[in-house]
Amino acid sequence: MLLVLGLADLYQNYYYWMVARVHNAFPFKPFNPDQWTLTNDMTSRIYLDYILFGAVGTLVTFIFLAFMVRRENRAKKQKL
Q1: What is the domain count for the chain?
Q2: Which has more pLDDT, 80 or 19?
Q3: Predicted confidence (pLDDT) at residue 19 exceeds the cutoff of 80
Q4: Is residue 35 a part of any domain in this protein?
């Protein structure tokens, strides 16, 4: 059943995202690289909050996974 749903989804993506259809949804605009320059705005509080929350989330996940691995290894040693 999942295979059928996956194939149907692939067909829909193929059909709706054909170049001719996408061209109608997104008209041609000349590319201007000056509009796409990425900058790190260190004065933005929101930007710094996202960086901080991402770092904290990563560290919490790492600590949790390390704890779970240690717990699993201890359980294996106790069974022996």
Answers
A1: 1
A2: 19
A3: no
A4: no
3-state secondary structure of 29: coil
34 is a domain residue: no
Better-predicted residue by pLDDT, 53 or 79? 53
Burial 50-80 (b: 16+ CB within 10 A, else e): eeeeeeeeeeeeeeeeeeeeeeeeeeeeeee
Residue with tokens 């717990």: 71
16 vs 11, 25, 26, CA distance in Å? 9, 10, 13
For residue 52, tell me if it sits in a domain: yes
Q: Count Cβ atoms below 10 Å from residue 47 Cβ, excluding itself.
A: 13
Range of the domain at 16: 2-27+41-79
pLDDT in tens, 32-78: 888 887 777 778 888 889 999 999 999 999 999 999 999 999 988 88
Considering the domain boundaries, does residue 36 fall inside one? no
